[in-house]
């Protein structure tokens, strides 16, 4: 289980979200309060949008709390849209390629949760990827593979649909392998314009997700747990929700993977 | 506050102490039970004696739990005398040079605790070192400096006396700087023959220290907290104790720094 | 192109081969003389056999010349059979999982050379691996995949045959992909008893390979380039050779991959 | 000997200077042409000015050529004033704290060259620093210490004078230690407004220094060796020069350390 935070709005210094708040992501790397494990020390990452369509990416394998580069970058860089993540490995090695966010073109993606039984369905899922996407895989995590399933399902044109179909592909692969689907998926992703998020699990315990306005509504945050108990008005997002956050507003819709509606023979 | 373990006896694989036990040092790097902070993720280190008078040294800045090299080294290397440490920084940066154990010639040293107010007396303490020892300093920790004070006080000829006089130098420097001495010192060190340890604090809360026989008495351990609740018979070492462990026996003496007995004007 | 050295014989300190000689592997990481690129600064690795059937493994991503752990480990560890490697990446990222040697069970493998056009045949080659071997892949290099092809071809029972058949699989995959086979393969591998090596290329320029006795014949070395011009009597190994080195003797045979002898329809 | 590049002018992406040119700093980390050693693989660093008075700082110990974070940061970050450095150690360990640039408040400093015989005068030089500056030292390099000597000599009010007096302090310390002064000093530093540089040596071989306009004069570069042979008009800076570069113009003055003009009894 990992912790993450994302922001969309007027430009702020990354540190205003990532490192400065009393229960910032850095603090959560040491002492998360709503996660299964309090320590998220298996690396971290930042993806932020700026002068290009593609985000900048900074990831490293130290615990977030002990990286002076992270502190300095967050203090110096301003952005109106960014994603930040601290990792608690559920399996993959501690390497930069296994740290979130993952980036492909203008898209960035980060994930709290896991694909249960991943080692038993990984190869089958990989086999469904076209060569171009398969060759983009740099690490060995379930999260990176899931992101590429989303791309393959049409992330550019239909983010929620792509996410639902990717979820269905995982569920279907688990069933084919004779195991119970066990996906936990609290994730955020962006194309550089809109910030999307999801809270979902195949069981009753989807990892937490919260939204809040930031600085009198000039920005909005979406996080796996609140980084500040005093100043913000955190709204829990219910399970099985899909969040679409723009500079104008925030819409929360039901998230219903295809697998729950119909057989997924189409894959 | 850090965690450490040391062993003296018949050759064992390092993993028998460092990584394999249920509450091994690796487990303690994640979830220490008797330390002020449960996480000891700011690097780690091993010093082990083998075919040379000087110990081998392996230190790195990752958390111990996520370093595959550490696991492999501990699985492959056998030694009859070694020291292992996981670090929770009380100030110094996370760098290899700040990881314990520290090595000088045939001596290795590691420490749980800290010199309170170190930033206010560091330079004065450094100034008391002769050039040759000063030039050996590689990092910026209170622990490495304390080790070099011990060397300067005659560690080769009188380990306990050197430790007492080094303690007195720290206490004296604090008083000169107008601050209350606040030293916590649970440490182990060795010259490759004998394993020494100390449990001491200038206040009433010296960090814990335990000894135990290992494998029917073919070896002995001394640790900051037990790594195994079932098989070993852990003996707590009382505060203000100095431990001398040889292959033949273990002697525990009172530890009374010079500063508590007489003024330390000589420094 | 990388540099490597392997040793079999009476126990020596690793430093006698790896770090101490005037043109040691460490020196070669800075200034190789017979390699395409003089700098081999993209990580390094050691695999050494000792008290277990499986080798110990130490790999890191720093240049070999700047890693104090490597120096200390080589100074302290003694072994009668070990492999050491400094890497110059031909493509894969600089990560520990991409550093040689690679280890599987009691086998260790390291490689100088590359599979030309690897990005165009990687997925087809991976698809030929059974699940158990596929799941062992930790990195993204051609070398690690080639090693697992060897295992799949029966490395345990027939090392030279397995190597020939793995080579044929690569050649065949290239042809199927419509590209000219371009394999450069100067490699060493061991099961903890015997040290094997190969010098081969699909074109006329196989990377160099040398053998030498060490310390009056109490040991033997096999290396990609000599580490010492004065004391050793280096024997170049001719291209298309397979070397079998035991504690008793050294045998050099012709190396003729199956692909050069007959169609490889069997795959 | 290291390589560095600095830029002042209209905002550009860092990659336009640091990573994209044919003989960029990244290329120079592998194959410098005018340096004593072609490889500058002992870490790297960036300091760039943006929305704050103090610069952002990113340093790491990998070779610049193998760090994907560096590439992404340079691609995403825009700045009108920045310093970039690739390191070839002349002694200090490969650690982040020993990588250039060094930062203190709004000042950033980076250096190609060395203080000859540093190990014999280091402690004497450190002893001349006031506590506040001494406590700022994080690493063990001659360069970081020299930067703090400059601060102590009044860098804020008189950059050239501070540099001259710091040089004199080094020369004087060498003479007092009975060794010939041997300082090589090709350095750049900035307060966030003006970009200063120096080319100086106590002997006849000061490391090279070049300036050039960039993009039709909307910016200017100052570098240890040209990164682009075709488009830029590189002007070599003569030895014993001090360079003051502003957005308006560039002034080159003679650099004459105090030690060459009068006794330095004042220290």
From TrEMBL, chains A, B, C, D:
UniProt GO MF annotations: transferase activity
Keywords associated with the record: Glutamine amidotransferase, Transferase
PROSITE patterns tied to this protein: GATASE_TYPE_2
Keyword Lipid metabolism: no
Pfam family, one: GATase_4
Record domain Glutamine amidotransferase type-2: where: 2-248
Superkingdom per UniProt: Bacteria
Protein name: Class II glutamine amidotransferase
Source organism of this protein record: Mesorhizobium hungaricum
Coiled-coil region list: none
């Amino acid at each position: 289980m990992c912790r993450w935070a994302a922001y969309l709005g007027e430009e702020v210094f990354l540190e205003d979200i990532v490192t400065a708040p009393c229960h910032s992501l850095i603090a959560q790397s040491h002492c998360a309060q709503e996660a299964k494990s309090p320590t998220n020390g298996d690396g971290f990452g930042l993806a932020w949008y700026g002068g290009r369509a593609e985000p900048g990416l900074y990831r490293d394998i130290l615990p977030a709390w002990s990286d002076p580069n992270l502190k300095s970058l967050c203090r110096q860089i301003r952005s109106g849209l960014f994603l930040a993540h601290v990792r608690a490995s559920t399996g993959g090695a501690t390497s930069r390629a296994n740290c979130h966010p993952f980036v492909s073109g203008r898209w960035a993606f980060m994930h709290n949760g896991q694909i249960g039984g991943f080692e038993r369905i990984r190869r089958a899922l990989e086999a469904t990827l076209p060569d171009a996407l398969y060759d983009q895989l740099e690490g060995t995590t379930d999260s990176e593979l899931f992101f590429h399933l989303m791309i393959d399902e049409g992330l550019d044109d239909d983010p929620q649909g792509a996410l639902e179909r990717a979820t269905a592909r995982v569920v279907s692969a688990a069933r084919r392998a004779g195991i119970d689907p066990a996906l936990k998926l609290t994730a955020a992703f962006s194309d550089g314009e809109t910030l999307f998020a999801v809270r979902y699990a195949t069981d009753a315990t989807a990892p937490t997700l919260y939204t809040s306005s930031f600085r009198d509504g000039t920005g909005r945050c979406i996080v796996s747990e609140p980084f500040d108990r005093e100043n913000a008005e955190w709204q829990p997002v219910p399970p099985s929700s899909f969040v679409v956050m723009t500079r104008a507003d925030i819409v929360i819709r039901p998230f219903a993977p295809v697998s729950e509606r119909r057989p997924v023979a189409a894959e």
